[in-house]
Amino acid sequence: MKLERRNGNPIVRTIIYIVCIFLAVLSLFPFVVMIVNSTRSTFEIQQHAVSLIPSTFLKSNWAQFTGKSFNPFKGFLNSMIISVGATACTVYFSTLTAYALVAYQWKMRQPVFVFILCVMMIPATVTTIGFYQFMYRIGMTNNFLALILPAIYAPSAVFFMRQFMLASLPLELLDSARIDGSREFYTFNRIAMPIMKPAMATQGIFSFVGTWNSLFIPSVILTDINKFTMPLMVSLLKGDIYKREFGAIYLGLALSVLPLFIVYFALSKYIVAGVALGSVKG
């Protein structure tokens, strides 16, 4: 009886495996189609948009992609600088803000948290004009810092970190560190942050993906083609309706997605560890 309870019903287990495999295939299918289309010509894509058979036009698509007025390697580097910088700012300062909301007792703590929730409800596009005017007046247009430093303000990340910290951070551990003479920043960096690794990894993935794929804000701030990000350069491949090179576009999209896979697989082990830790605590 114990063995059956541990292993479960074989039929149910088989159904679960089938559903998981189906969902995995369904999730990977768009990426497979994108990679295959990067090897096909525009004519082939227009005839059959979905195909699992690679073609022989990868070299010509690469020539079209690299033969434009922009340098895709420069765009890749620009996107990497902005995404890594913005992700580091978002993760660290959001965790620090959540730590202040959880680890300390102060009078305006709850009103400040409510204010953060209210700010989270404001669409980013509403503040775009004011944001551009502010950056223009302080001379920060065509500057990567204009896309990196505002990442410090991330109310959704603060909310996520606070909720995770309420369940996972033992305040008694922080009190013990203070009694032993630990300073506040040392306590945060050496005690609180290691406990927050799963949440930080999750927010790191979200922030990196969102920043890497961002098109609207960089198109407003950046006007120098040498400072364009990868999505901006891929958008230049569209041309007009009669000259769209779909093979080169798919190739650019495939190259754009590659760092996202690397970041996800690099941080996924921390997410799994966090889920396992939460299940053990439960």
Percentage of residues in DSSP E strands: under 5%
Q: Tell me, briefly, the overall form.
A: globular
How many β-strands, per DSSP? Answer: 0
How much helix is in the residues? over 70%
What is the alpha-carbon Rg in Å? 24 Å
Query: Which structural category do the helix and sheet elements fall into?
Result: mainly alpha
The CATH C-level class name of the domain at 73-236: Mainly Alpha
Describe this structure in words.
The chain has 282 residues and is mainly α. It has a domain at 73-236: MetI-like (MetI-like fold, Orthogonal Bundle). Helices cover 73% and strands 0% of the residues. The chain is built from 15 helices and no strands. It has helices spanning 2-7, 10-37, 42-47, 58-66, 72-103, 109-120, 128-137, 145-148, 155-168, 171-179, 184-195, 197-213, 216-221, 230-235, 246-281. It is globular and about 70 Å long.
Short synopsis of the structure:
This protein is mainly alpha-helical.
Question: Topology of this structure?
Answer:
Blueprint: H1 2-7, H2 10-37, H3 42-47, H4 58-66, H5 72-103, H6 109-120, H7 128-137, H8 145-148, H9 155-168, H10 171-179, H11 184-195, H12 197-213, H13 216-221, H14 230-235, H15 246-281
Helix pairs in contact: 2-15, 4-15, 5-9, 5-12, 6-9, 10-11, 12-15
